[in-house]
Design a protein that fits this description.
Six copies of one chain form a homohexamer.
Chain A lengths: L3 E4 L3 E5 L11 E7 L1 H11 L4 E4 L1 E3 L2 H12 L8 E3 L6 E5 L8 E5 L15 H5 L4 E5 L9 H14 L3 E5 L9 H12 L4 E4 L1 H8 L6 H12 L3 E8 L5 E10 L2 E4 L3 E4 L6 H15 L2 H15 L11 H8 L9
Parallel strand pairs in A: 1-4, 1-9, 2-7, 5-6, 9-10, 10-11, 11-12
Antiparallel strand pairs in A: 2-3, 7-8, 12-13, 13-14, 13-15
Helix pairs in contact in A: 1-8, 6-7, 8-9, 9-10
Chain lengths: 327, 327, 327, 327, 327, 327
């Protein structure tokens, strides 16, 4: 029985190499990405048994997604397969200042978008698990996925599994008002919230003078055990400064900041969630925050949405290792 | 004003290199293909002004399709652009005996699938043209594309533009019965039919003892000026023998046969149509058949759906040039 | 509990693309291969739960091997990990007549070469399994791997698991005399033998006038349930004819022959074993032979040692599907 | 009839990927570049009909150049084709501090270098056009191209088409004295000058204490409507700060500055000209300067000499969009 | 002092991968080729010290040519370097039946084309050498290269170095009449001629009823020690049958024939020359012919103009090795 | 006779492109590296005859190493070839802050690791040479390579050849105590030491308050003519500041500092040694230091371990050239 379970959609990601624009490229690099799968991968790479729950079309692209998940150490045994629907895709263009990265989604009518309540036997899937994680994308991608997400969270609560949500507001999927209404109900079913101050304002209309207040107010509104905010500074595409802070009833926690050279920023937030879950499961909230930001910083340096790291590498970074080649 | 006009959908084609299966590849080669565009490209490469009429989503993928069409010499000025819908895709796996090539279509809800009658100003588009060409795919891809195709053919007939159709039955799009009913009406509006004996049997239920009879019967049923059949022999993936025959009221025409080493067989039939149209426009039915099969043979040797040849190269082949390097 | 278990070494395979020689290439394609893992992959692709038992160094290359195994559907939970030793490699040059393919092994002192009896808890690993498979490479790669292999076979026999061996004589690893002595003891512990007439002669000194006699004699000597021989004809690198025959106490079985266009011949024998095991587990010896040769034929068309096929594709081939594109 | 016409040479550009030196690379990326074509592409991408006038050898390389131009939206109908001469090439090495980028030209005896007055029917080509643009390279590449350029400018003047020149002094083509004499005559036929303070000093010997004075003096000497200077700061290869200023009789205009992460700096000046022309045609000199520097900044982030942007992307940048991924 | 010396031009070869046409490719593979350098490489790979005499422009492309020569084991110490002129290039398109391979030369005004008599100190360069080899291309590429070639041959004759010529008529460089006059004088200075019956007819107007007679007549006309003819059969691009025959005063020699799968046919004739020279230097004329055709057959299987083989591999082929993987 | 001789191991380097991790890559770029070969390449590129002395396995990988050395201008005539042992490999992962570059060595039991005293005829190899260079890696890679290194240094000393050592402490090969004992004896046989302050402390236990004191103390202890220290500043992976200082009996020398954008940092120290040797051979210690740091700065911008530069490029950098494209 896996310790950690995540639930959501993953897509085939198609990206031109070498900073090419989509219009000019003649080749695409093919990987797989999806917020909850990305987090599952991070958790698995850190040594936890982890299962990703999803729904996939039974063709070469659907199998490819499951193959990549297993390659990275994630169990796909709980996935449902359908001969219908299609596999979601997204096209990614890397950015360089002043040109932002671009994402062209082609995910309508995907197998996951047609997920409905009752499709998954949650009590069975959650038996023995320690943690259940989703993001705010899962309820937004299909007509019934919000209901299906609530069903899953309630099942997790019912058996005492810890629950977390990464808010991840997606303007291409719904309006702030729609998101606020739906996500409010879901966050209320969660123990841990991961988000940014900006999303707190967008989704819940909580405008606060500082990160601490924003986190405290949203925690209070939904009765959360902790609220972690990731902090990104910098206006460039290839270099940012990363850190994180966390509110919990006992006060405010912070991390050191990392100067990151950015190879690929997709999945960085999802890797934060992975480090966070690892930290809570093995240590405490301070370690969770530290591991979260270290995982996120490392993810920025790795192509694809997945954090191809080892636990030892993250520990070395947390232990202060520098950029010297180890020879 | 372009001499030749074709009407249909083109898609982004994504193919693993080096005979890889989709599940195992990490890169895809991106080109563009669609039967009527492929034919337009062939016609343009042979020196005719040619316009491709279609409907595209105004995003990077839609622009990419138009860019590739123009790169190959085809005008896209008559295309409609929409902010809605999506761009059709297909994934192509090259084959090797005994594994056949594979095509995974992902074309539902494309901009072209939503084409309806009345969208194109055919009298204006056809003014001054000499030839209008479609395939049996165009009426099959959307709910209203059959009506839109009939509208176009009738407009062409009305102004005396020569009309041709490549039957191209696609089992993934409709049943033989559906195809037979619809295509029967469309073929009746055409001067020239290009097809195979197998499709004649599938679509129109005409089982004949030989190619000649099959062609004659379908010509008779629909009142056609000629019926050209492409003939492929061989059970391998990398080597086939190609030729063609044609029925017309004056008798039967044939071509020499070509031993072809197959780099990429997609678009080979469409290139036959291009050579055929070129031949009729500039010579006669025998030349049309000869140019058709030569274009098709050459297309087999070229990656992508497009026939990147020159008129001089086709002439050299028709003139008997061998495989010696010209140094 | 997996149905099928295989035991052996896998290596990182490094191959120049596009028929380049090693000396001239500047890039290498990296995949994973090893006879027993290749078979496990084939078995898993056909829908059976399958576990590969091996020993790997815990570094990026060792993890890469396990990742690729899982990606292809094989469980690596039974693998042992060590911080010591190294990961075996081999460099592969594709051939073209009259230049044969080339394999440069660099596998000395690998983690698997240091496998010793007692390292694996076979009774636990084999509990509930239906089939245990090895090849003649496993006993040859290390000083104690022959003993470890015997230990595994005896454990399988003890609990009634079916056992098979692919003889796979490797002249770079041992002499015919050494192989004959060791493999004789191991074959005597097996139910099913897969091999070629040539290896029967090389390893066991059984020179027979024909395939049937060779198979019968080796079956008789070792008390085997069946002996399957793969038959390859042709002197080219890109094209061969494949078939197989089988001796069993009830007589001789044969298959149709396949004309194959060869993309990558490595792993083709291992895929035969996979199809054979599938056939015995689900049908009978005739089906085993048929599935074996169909799997092997398909494997020739796919880059890498793994047979990236689906059960449906093999069934289609067995059902007589041709090279036509399915559109 | 196209709105904008440019006149000059384009070459096949061959560049090693991944910062490799020419001596060590085994692959080259092939694109197309040439100052006036680059500008034409930028103008076309912003939505204007645009024709590029040139002379090309009728072989695969010459056709490739025309194909790329059409792919990017530029008309090549006005190009002349010759069976003689050769196609100009240049090899480009990307730089990294402290190693500057390298350009190895191989353009002697190209089809364009043999352009002579009288080859183009300028009155016909310019009929209905709004803008005619050249650079200081066109007159320098061949023995008679200076005369041919003057002929074109005079024809444009004669029919009231706006004329612009990007000074673009090339030390590998001529001496400052030669350039000064020739370009002085050509600039006097232009309305708009785009250049740098350094080129003003090099070519015309105008040493001024600041940008404003340099621009004013050159404007005065040649009777120009405006002089735009692009300003680049920074000593690195992957990061620069860009802005621009402009002198016109009514005063000095300036732009904001952009921090740019440099993927490919070739064509950046040509894209400035494209944005500038767009701005004048649709707005005013301030917008021309703003669009020029925004186009140039974006071009730095895109591989190849062409600015693969959309009008909407430039507008978003001018509107203050940041580096956030739009999801 | 090198044993074997060859004299001629080498060019940078630029070839689209994967059978792409030049017009459609976005990458080129860069290697080096030139008949006399190709032969030098073959001779060096077989273990002889070998020097290639040429003239190169001192830029990155010229150095690249010399680098590749040295990489393959050929000495470039005798090459002259000039800051002037340019480096010859050629673009190569692989063929597939019925499309022949294509070569687009861009070699005018190269450093070698400007070679004149007196540039090389032949007595010094030839001191101690055993063999001097040229082809019929060397005298054809420049205005004075014929004179320079004669100078070299006379110097070789003067010191008793064996001389050979591969006739290699190039229709793109001169007419048969021009070639016949010039090459007649040069062949008369040679001991060994390598050619085809077709070139004997083209260049010397010797039409003979069979290979034997053609070889005998040309040998007689020019007083040659032997005339070797390479024989190619087959009308495909990926498969040919190769053999060779030789006339010498003692009679006719023949070789076995090889079925070759063709990866890259360029340089195959040059590799024949290399094997031939090796054979004469180490054995006799029969071995020379055998090694020549074996080297040529192997070259067909290797990308680039160079025969990346080892002496052991050629010996194995001559010894009857088949296509089995050596494991 | 070569002017400069270096002695050590080179390995095949296998690196994933585009910042991929080893576990996720499907292709590897193959180059060659090894400290003493890297230095030999730099020296050869600056125009000196240079021989690299090593021991290689006679297979495709061993030949590949020698080929690459010759390609870069280094003589491999003094290398020994053996049919035994294996070729050392290393896998390199590029870094990005905060992820350091990674090196996975697989060099055990290589042909060089089995080097023993008496294998090389040093008096003959060193005859006529001006300089002999090693690093602290050579004595560490094998059981007897320390003795073999001492033998070589003593032979160089005996004939008055200048000797230099780059300390290059490798923690993966030996402990500081082991290194200190062995390297102390070797440094005492050298004229010139190149190292870092950190290695001086690690290896010799010399903790000094500043660079100058560290250099002076180690110089004094071993009686050195000079001690050069390379100085690297910065905590990022893609950008550092480089300079160098040198102690000699006459005082302290320094260089300007370079801001470097890092493409590939491997071999940068080895290129410093190359520039240093060039400087001493042609100028003086100040030039040696200047050329050393300029070579090192340029090496950072070039993929692979080799400094693919020309003497003219280094001179231009030393002369103050900026990042402008030379057009």
């Amino acid at each position: 029985m896996p310790d950690v379970i995540t639930f959501g959609e993953a897509m085939v990601r198609l990206a031109p190499p070498s900073h090419r624009r989509l219009e000019q490229t003649r080749t695409l690099d093919i990987t797989v990405g999806g917020a909850e799968l990305d987090t599952a991968v991070g958790v698995a790479r850190l040594g936890h048994s982890c299962s990703w729950v999803s729904r996939l079309t039974d063709n070469a692209l659907g199998r490819l997604i499951a193959n990549h998940a297993r390659e990275a150490g994630v169990s796909t045994e709980a996935c449902l397969w359908t001969p219908d629907d299609r596999v979601g895709l997204y096209f990614y263009e890397f950015g360089a200042a002043p040109r932002p990265p671009g994402v062209l989604y082609d995910r309508k009518d995907s197998a996951f978008a047609n997920v409905r309540p009752g499709m998954f036997d949650w009590p069975r899937l959650l038996a023995g698990a320690k943690w259940f994680h989703i993001t705010g994308i899962t309820p937004a991608v299909g007509a019934k996925t919000a209901d299906a997400t609530r069903e899953a969270l309630e099942a997790a609560r019912a058996v005492g599994v810890a629950t977390s949500i990464d808010l991840n507001y997606r303007a291409k999927l719904w309006t702030p008002a729609e998101a606020g209404k739906c996500l409010g109900e879901l966050v209320a079913l969660c123990d841990y919230l991961i988000t940014t101050r900006e999303d707190i304002a967008n989704v819940f209309g909580i405008e606060a003078p500082d990160h601490e207040t924003a986190a405290a107010r949203v925690a209070e509104r939904f009765g959360l055990k902790s609220v972690a905010l990731t902090l990104r500074e910098g206006s460039l595409g290839w270099r940012n400064t990363l850190s994180a802070m966390l509110w919990h009833p006992g006060g405010i926690l912070r991390t050191r900041s990392y100067e990151v050279e950015i190879v690929d920023r997709l999945g960085a937030g999802d890797s934060f969630a992975a480090g966070f879950i690892h930290g809570v499961l093995t240590h405490d909230l301070q370690k969770a925050l530290d591991w979260g930001v270290a995982m996120s910083a490392l993810k920025h340096t790795i192509p694809s949405d997945f954090a191809w790291v080892t636990r030892e590498e993250v520990e070395a970074l947390l232990g202060g290792a520098g950029m010297r080649v180890d020879r």
